[in-house]
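User: quick one, sequence for these tokens?
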């Protein structure tokens, strides 16, 4: 075997090794990539594995492998509007019935995720794992809502849960990925939105259209005083089942 052949073989082996390393990192982004991709979810999984980085990253890599290419389904305008209106109804009910409001928010997030093509709550681990791959920076709010819906939070805790969950709801309803730090923005779509031309809306020039609420009243889709800022879920008959929040 000549020296040239040996050099060629070495180069081939190096190229194959580099390619395998690249594919491995592309799949999960490598250690740093996984931390960036999953954010607080990375820390949660790491804590659940008692600080074992290798085990935590193996789990997250598996999630990416299984759900990274999940084909998400679009919502029809009618279905989207139903969810927006129901969330608004839940936030209005929060003032008088926070337990009902948080339970409906829990159902909403589960139902909306399933509408978009994520596994349903009848497969709780798959449900949360798939959501964590696509919405890692905001899935914590969903876990907070689910815990609060099952009696593990006071009124202030429930209010905080609905606020935190809003970013995930928006992302699922609006066909966009959730962006870290965007969890508490005002309602921009739905009934009563400025410039929408819908009953109760305002024209760009500021003139109220027929149906505009009188001063001091609550506009459709707006949170009443003391209610969390958010939107709510169609009561579509789905069972509000218990499932582990730590998965």
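Assistant:
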């Amino acid at each position: 075997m000549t020296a040239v052949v040996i050099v060629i073989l070495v180069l081939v082996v190096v190229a194959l090794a580099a390619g395998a390393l690249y594919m491995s990192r592309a799949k999960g982004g490598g250690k740093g990539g996984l931390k960036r991709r999953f954010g607080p979810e990375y820390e949660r999984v790491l804590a659940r594995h008692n600080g074992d980085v290798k085990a935590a990253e193996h789990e997250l890599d598996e999630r990416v492998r299984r759900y990274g290419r999940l084909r998400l389904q679009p919502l029809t305008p009618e279905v989207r509007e139903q969810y927006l209106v129901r969330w608004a109804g839940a936030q209005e009910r929060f003032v008088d019935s926070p337990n009902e409001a948080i339970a409906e928010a829990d159902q909403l997030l589960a139902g909306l995720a399933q509408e978009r093509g994520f596994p349903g709550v009848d497969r709780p681990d798959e449900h949360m794992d798939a959501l964590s791959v696509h919405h890692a920076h905001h899935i914590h709010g969903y876990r907070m809502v689910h815990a609060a819906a099952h009696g593990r939070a006071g009124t202030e805790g429930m209010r905080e849960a609905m606020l935190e969950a809003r970013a995930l709801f928006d992302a699922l309803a609006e066909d966009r990925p959730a962006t870290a730090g965007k969890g508490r923005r005002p309602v921009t779509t739905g009934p009563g939105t400025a410039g929408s031309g819908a009953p109760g809306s305002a024209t760009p020039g500021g003139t109220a259209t027929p149906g505009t609420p009188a001063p001091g009243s609550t506009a459709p889709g707006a949170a009443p005083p003391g209610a969390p800022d958010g939107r709510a879920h169609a009561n579509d008959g789905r069972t509000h089942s218990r499932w582990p929040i730590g998965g």
